[in-house]
UniProtKB/TrEMBL annotation:
Natural source organism: marine sediment metagenome
Domain Mannosylglycerate hydrolase MGH1-like glycoside hydrolase positions: 5-97
InterPro entries in alphabetical order: 6-hairpin_glycosidase_sf, 6hp_glycosidase-like_sf, MGH1-like_GH
The protein's name: Mannosylglycerate hydrolase MGH1-like glycoside hydrolase domain-containing protein
GO process terms (BP): carbohydrate metabolic process
Length: 245
């Protein structure tokens, strides 16, 4: 824990309210606005206050395009919208940034980036996402692999782990369910969520004053369910009932 805290503080640039991209050989922070802080955010390693500064930048027009997040800010002197590592939009990186947004309660930005990832599967071969796009135009660059599995897979990962908020642990027999649905969705059905040989079905219904979740298991042993629904800003919980009680 002390090592992690020291690492956080070493890279944190207080004046800029951001984490340095790297530490130079002179032991000074290299200050560049990039998407790469997504990695510790993905593992929930940053405190909420610092994460908020980073996620604000992710969601801004400085970093976000309609097709994903740039790897490097256009304000950087190194930025090139066609450079593989210094300005293009990677669906792979956008996916991790999207999951980071859901991790820290930024469901609106997370949903926006999830939709960007989904739309990317309609260019070139249907169902596949190219490896990377220009940082300025919705067009894959020449170096892009057209059928890139790690750029296509975030569509499913961000849907299940982010929007639906589903995680399963077969060894502990536990399920974590953190749904963060858009405000306009009043019903969601999830079928065949599998953990080992066990299968679960979820039916969520929402109204102005109720949030109802029905879980139907097809399991060989009991599971513990951790349920953390996103109720939206201003919502107050007046009562909670389990199995009608």
């Amino acid at each position: 824990e002390k090592g992690l805290e020291a690492l956080r503080d070493k890279f944190w640039v207080k004046e800029e309210k951001k984490y340095a991209h790297a530490i130079t050989v002179e032991d000074k922070p290299l200050i560049e606005t990039t998407v790469w802080p997504f990695m510790p955010l993905f593992f929930r390693q940053f405190p909420q206050e610092r994460a908020n500064y980073i996620l604000d930048i992710f969601a801004s027009s400085e970093m976000s395009t309609d097709w994903g997040i740039r790897s490097l800010s256009p304000k950087s002197s190194y930025y090139d919208p066609l450079n593989y590592n210094y300005g293009t939009v990677w669906p792979f990186l956008t996916g991790y940034a999207c999951l980071s947004e859901y991790n820290y309660g930024r469901s609106l930005a997370g949903f926006s980036h999830l939709m960007s990832l989904a739309h990317n599967t309609f260019i070139d071969a249907l169902g596949f996402s190219p490896e990377l796009f220009s940082g300025e135009f919705f067009k894959p660059i020449e170096a892009s692999v057209p059928h890139q599995i790690f750029s296509s897979s975030p569509v499913v990962t961000c849907l299940v782990r982010g929007l639906l908020g589903l995680k399963g642990n077969a060894l502990k027999r536990e399920i974590e369910f953190r749904p963060s649905f858009p405000g306009s969705w009043d019903r969601v059905k999830i079928r065949n969520f599998r953990i080992g040989k066990d299968i679960f079905h979820f039916d969520v219904q929402r109204s102005e004053d109720k949030f109802i979740c029905q879980i139907v298991p097809e399991a060989y042993a009991p599971y513990r369910i951790h349920f953390y629904p996103s109720l939206g800003y201003g919502a107050r919980v007046k009562a909670v009932k389990v199995n009608g009680e």
